[in-house]
Amino acid sequence: MSIFVDDDTRVVVQGITGGEGKFHTEQMIEYGTNVVAGAVPGKGGQEVAGVPVYDTVDQAVDAEDADASVVFVPPAFAADAVFEALDTDLDLVVAITEGIPTQDMAKVNKRLSEVDTRLIGPNCPGIITPGEAKLGILPGNIFESGDVGLVSRSGTLTYQVVSNLTERGIGQTTAIGIGGDPIIGTSFVDSLEAFEADSETKAVVMCGEIGGEDEEQAAKFIAENMDTPVAGFIAGRTAPPGKRMGHAGAIVSGSGTGTAESKIDALNDAGVPVGDTPNEVADYIEDFL
Amino acid sequence: MRLHEYQAKDVFADAGIPVPESHLATTVEEVVEAVSEIGFPAAIKAQVHVGGRGKAGGIKIATDEAEARQYADEILGMDLKGYTVEKVLVEEGVDFENELYVGITMDRGEGEPVAMVSTEGGVDIESVAEETPDAIAREHIDPAFGLHPYQARKVVYDAEIPRDVAGDVASILSTLYDLYESKDASEVEINPVMITADREVIAADAVMNIDEDALFRQPDLAEMEDEAAADDLEAKANEYGFDYVRLSGNVGIIGNGAGLVMTTLDLVDHFGGTPANFLDIGGGAKAERVANALDMVFADENVDAVVFNIFGGITRGDEVAKGINEALESFDEIPKKVVVRLAGTNAEEGMEILNTDLVEVEATLEDAVQRAVENAQEAGQ
Predict the structure, then answer these.
(1) b/e for A211-235, b at 16 or more Cβ within 10 A?
(2) Residue B80: enclosing H or E segment and its boundaries?
(3) What residues of A are in contact with residue B264 (Cβ under 8 Å)?
C-alpha cells in the first residue's frame, strides 16, 4: 500500500509546455507514472511527450479521467492554476512552483478548507510511491519500494535521508515533500495521519526544519494518535535568529519561536528520537523494523 | 524586503494615514535646513535596516540648532551594527499623551492575516506578547473578504483603546489592511501610534515589509529596494542572487536546497567545527553559478576550508563538477582546501569530470563534513 498516489493515479500536468513541465513530464512517464494529460491555456490540441494537451484543467479531467494534477506553472500564475485545479473533481494537486506570493497562498488556503481536494506544496519536490508513481521532481532512482513512510519540508534533505535508508536496503511506502513555504496545503499532521492509517507503513521518518510550529503540532499528534514508530530530523540547529535560511518559512523569529531546540524537545517528549545526522535517523529506523 | 521608515511613511501618508512632518537629509546642512522648517524639538532618525536603532544611538532628539548640527554630525556616517548611516529622517517632535500599537502580519499557523492592536505602544511588541499576551487584542482576517469595518472596530474596542480616538484608530487599521493587501506586505506596523494632547492620532513610526515573492507585481516598491548590505560579502551575494547568510565560523559551506544546506551547517557544528556561512545555490544550477558560489566563499577571509555538498535532483552533478573545475583551474594556488561530495542526478558523470587534483572527494555527507572540519582546524593553526 501507499498513501495519496499509486499505480492507478491518473495525472494531468499543468504547465506541461514549459521547460520544467516538459522535462519532468518525461521523467515522470519514464518512472511509470500515468500522465494522461496536460493543461495549458491556449495550447489545447498540442501533444507533449505523447500526452494530449487541453486548454483547461476541467477539459483534461473530463476527457482523460484524471484524478491528480501537478503544477509547474510560474509563480505569478501558480495560485490561479491551483484555484483552477481545486474547481474540478481532482483528489490531489501537487504544486511544485517556488516563489508564490504568500497572500495568494492565504487565499488558496481558504479555498482548500471548502473543497475535498488535497494540496501538496507549494515549493516542494512532490510525492513518490516507489515503483508505482512519482508526481514531481524527485530523482526516482534513489527510492526503493518498502515499508517506511517519509515526510519532509525540504527536497534535497529528503534525498539525503532516503539514500541513507536505501543504502541499507530499507525501502519506502511513500515519500512526501510538503514544501518550505510559510503556508502549505498538506501538513506534517495530515501526512502522519495517512501513514498511521496505512497498514504497510511500519515506521515513519519526519524531517522538519526551523520556523513555524508545524513540527510541535506533529509531535502532539504523534503522542496522542500514533502507534507507528516515528524518527525525526530537524535542520537548522545552528541558524541564527532573524535570518531567513533559504526557504521562506525557515526563519527563527526574534522572540525565539521556531527554534530547532523547541522542535527537538517537543519530538523527544512525544517519544520520537531525533537524529543528530541523517545517518542516525536511518539507525533509529533500522532499530524500529 | 524591508522599506525604510521614510519610505513606509510616504506610502502611509499617500493612503491618508496622518504622519508627522518630516524631511529626508543626507548632510548636516540639510538637517539644519530641515529643522529650521520643522522647529523644535526635532527627531533625527538614522534610516538603516537595523532593529533597535534608538538603543544603538541612531535616534536623537534635538532641542536647538546646535544640537541638531551635533547629532546630525554624529549619526550621519556612523556605523550601526555594520551598516553605514547615509540618510536621516528629520521629523517634528510630537507631544503625546498615549502610545498605541497597531499592526498586521501573517499568522502562518492559521494561514491567514491577523490584525493586532494594543495600548502598550512604544515598546518592543514581541516582549509585550511574551510577558502580557492579553494586552494585545487580535482579529484574524479572512483573506478572501478582507478586514470588515466591524472587525476593525471590534479589535480596537477589545484592546480598550480610549473611546474618543477609537474611531480614528479603527480607520487607520482599515487603511493599513488595504495597504497590506494591495502592496503585498508581509508585515505592516505602526509602533507607536501617538495620541496628542489635542486627541489627534499620528503614526510616529512606520514598518512595512514586502513579500519578496510578490515584487514582480509591485514595481514601485521594488524600485525602493535599498540593497545596502552589511558588508561586501552580502553585496556580492545580492549581485550573484544567492541565498546567503554570513556566520562567524571558518568552514565555508556550499550546497543545494535550504534543508540540506542547513543540515550541512549543523553537521559542521556536530563534528566540532564552526560554519562560516549558509549558501544555497538553488535547484538546477549551471557551471557558472557553481563557480560564483566558490568565488563567494573564498572571498570570506574567515574561511579556512570549504565543503561543497550536492545531492542532485534537478541539479546535475556534471554541471556542478564543471563549475568547480572552472573556478579552481583559474587559480595558480587553490586558496583554501575544498572537499566535494556529489550524489544524485548525474553524480557519476560529475565524478568523471571533476579534477581531483584540485579537490578532495568524499562519498558521504558525514565524511565530507568531517574532512572539511579537519582541514579548517589544520589551516587555522
Answers:
(1) bbbbbbbbbebbeeebebbbbbbbb
(2) strand B79-80
(3) none
What is the domain range of residue A18? 10-120
**CA B122/CA A146 separation, integer angstroms:** 57
CATH number at residue A242: 3.40.50.261
| B280 in Cβ contact with B245 (< 8 Å) | no
Q: Classify B79 as helix, strand or coil.
A: strand
Q: Which CATH architecture has domain B96-223?
A: 2-Layer Sandwich (3.30)
CATH topology for B21-92?
Dna Ligase; domain 1 (3.30.1490)
Q: Which of A71, A166, A149 is nearest to B344 (CA)?
A: A166
User: So which residues of B are the catalytic ones?
Assistant: 101, 189
Segment A42-97, tens digit of pLDDT: 999 999 999 999 999 999 999 999 999 999 999 999 999 999 999 999 999 999 99
Nearest Cα to B243, choosing from B228, B258, B230, B221? B258
Write the pLDDT tens digit of every residue in B56-94: 899 999 999 999 999 999 999 999 888 899 999 999 998
Q: How many domains does chain A have?
A: 2
Mutate to test the interface with B, among A104, A123, A238, A277 (most CBs of B within 10 A): A238
Which residues of A are marked as active site? Answer: 247
Residue B213 to residue A248, Cβ atoms within 8 A: yes
DSSP letter assigned to residue B304: -
Dist CA B35 CA A140 (whole Å): 67
Which uninterrupted H or E stretch holds B261?
helix B258-270
CATH class of B232-380: alpha beta
* ipTM over 0.90 threshold: yes
CB-based contact A152 B259, cutoff 8 Å: yes
